[in-house]
């Protein structure tokens, strides 16, 4: 079994990745498109995300519009939303399992059970990462 420092570092990195997944879920910059007209005054940048679309003018003014209807969304966007949300929920279970299996906790007394819980936690975090990447691919492709 790994040392306590390695175990804490692994859990910390997995937690940082999970928080990053939550942050990217909320951001509108999943797909960025720029339009530049004949002059710089007509330049626009369009940000498309899971929950809203934003248009940034060349003057710096930004207007965001939240998607109105679930029925109007494409199936790719709905699948991407679902996979990212499921990824975040699965990450919660990974974090709870990592806490239970940590060497510095007293949730379980048996060292072999703690080791198995840590392995299960790692697998759960990998599944969470795979789901987040699948959601990204559904949205972008």
Automatic annotation (TrEMBL):
**Top-level taxon in the UniProt lineage:** Eukaryota
Q: What is its main location?
A: other
Q: Report keywords, A-Z.
A: Cell junction, Cell membrane, Membrane, Tight junction, Transmembrane, Transmembrane helix
Membrane among keywords? yes
Q: Which InterPro entries match?
A: Claudin, Claudin_CS, PMP22/EMP/MP20/Claudin
Per the record, membrane topology reads:
Multi-pass membrane protein
**Which residue windows are transmembrane per the record?**
12-30, 79-99, 119-140
For molecular function, the Gene Ontology terms on record are: structural molecule activity
Entry's Gene Ontology cellular component terms: bicellular tight junction; plasma membrane
Location in the cell reads: Cell junction, Tight junction; Cell membrane
Explain the purpose of this protein. Answer: Claudins function as major constituents of the tight junction complexes that regulate the permeability of epithelia.
What's the family? Belongs to the claudin family.
- Write down what this protein is called: Claudin
The source organism is Gadus morhua (Atlantic cod)
């Amino acid at each position: 079994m790994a040392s306590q420092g390695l175990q804490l570092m692994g859990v910390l990195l997995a937690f940082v990745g999970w928080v990053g997944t939550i942050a990217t879920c909320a951001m509108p910059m999943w797909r960025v498109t720029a339009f530049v007209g004949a002059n710089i005054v007509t330049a626009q940048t369009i940000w498309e995300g899971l929950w809203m679309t934003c248009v940034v003018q060349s003057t710096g003014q930004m207007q965001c519009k939240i998607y109105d209807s679930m029925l109007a969304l494409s199936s790719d966007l709905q699948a991407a939303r679902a996979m990212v949300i499921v990824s975040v929920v699965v990450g919660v279970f990974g974090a709870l399992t990592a806490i239970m299996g940590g060497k510095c906790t007293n949730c379980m007394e048996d060292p072999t059970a703690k080791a198995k819980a840590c392995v299960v936690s790692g697998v759960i975090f990998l599944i969470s990462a795979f789901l987040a990447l699948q959601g990204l691919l559904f949205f972008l492709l």
